[in-house]
Amino acid sequence: PKISIVSRSEKNSFIFKYAPSLKYELIESDSYVGNDVELEFAAKFTKNWSVKIAERFIYSDDPRDSEEDEESENEDSSELFSTSEETDRHSYWKNDVGLTTGYSYGEDSLVSLRYRFEVLRNEDTGVGGFEDYEKHTFYSAIKHRFNSAWALTVSGGSVIGLFEPADYEESDEPLEALVGEEILGSAGDISEDVREYYGTVKLESNTFSHDPLSIQYRIVGIDYFEGEQEDSVIHEATIGWKHLFSADHTLTLGGGPSFRETENRDSLWGYNATIEYNYPFERGDFLLAIDKGFDQDNFSGLADKGFVDSWTFEGKVSYQLLEKLTGDV
Length: 329
Description:
The protein has 329 residues and is an all-beta fold. It is 2% helix and 61% strand. It has one helix at residues 175-179, and strands at residues 3-8, 12-18, 21-25, 30-44, 49-60, 92-106, 109-122, 132-145, 150-164, 194-205, 213-224, 232-244, 250-262, 268-281, 284-296, 307-322, 325-328.
């Protein structure tokens, strides 16, 4: 079940969501209780300036419960591509606090800033267990509309991840002999701390009202403080086209070359591609999306880190069963 309390006024809004869960393992005859709590407060101090504070706390044994909200404010930030694909069940808690502010200085022209602090703590951090981490995210963006046909968006940010590695198996050999003294942290543990940075420049054209076009350049980098992980940088260029059959019935196509540079390795060429189709129907809508490109995976809680060449498939059907009841598949 999920409980939602929403209060809105002309200048302020407050949202509270609570979703408890109860699971019972038939094989192990064991029960589990989870919690998912969200709080959000938004205020509009002036006609053009707004501030939002949000927090989410999760206690669960399913990594998928902590996946990012589909309506993430920042489509370029690493939150979208650092979510784990692992489904190994283990108990953990995660707390995420964010502060966002935006200032509108013209028609469809906006400056925004955001800071997020995220903490992950796993109950199993023993040998072969999962990593804990603290994550700081800084993000800024500016969108400027020159006229009704042209707009430019420039965004960028940085993510700092501070990790507490899982324990290693006991051995008669000293840790320095096993992994190399040069990659030990100051506390004698292997340091997995990382800095991610990213930037995007996107030019949009509405010259053709039913067929807007865009061209985008994106750079994403990974810089490991210490350790045996290799620093990497990717460059992506994307040309996009969107056809509006109607306001909600749309088809989006995009693609272009991708180039990855990795320390001590040969450079790698690839490509990025996006297909998205939205089709509304009476009392519902249908979504199909396919995305391909280089992604980051530094915050899965597991040992493997860095860039991955990934495919993402999404299909969704929403239907309004009753006046105030909607179902999603």
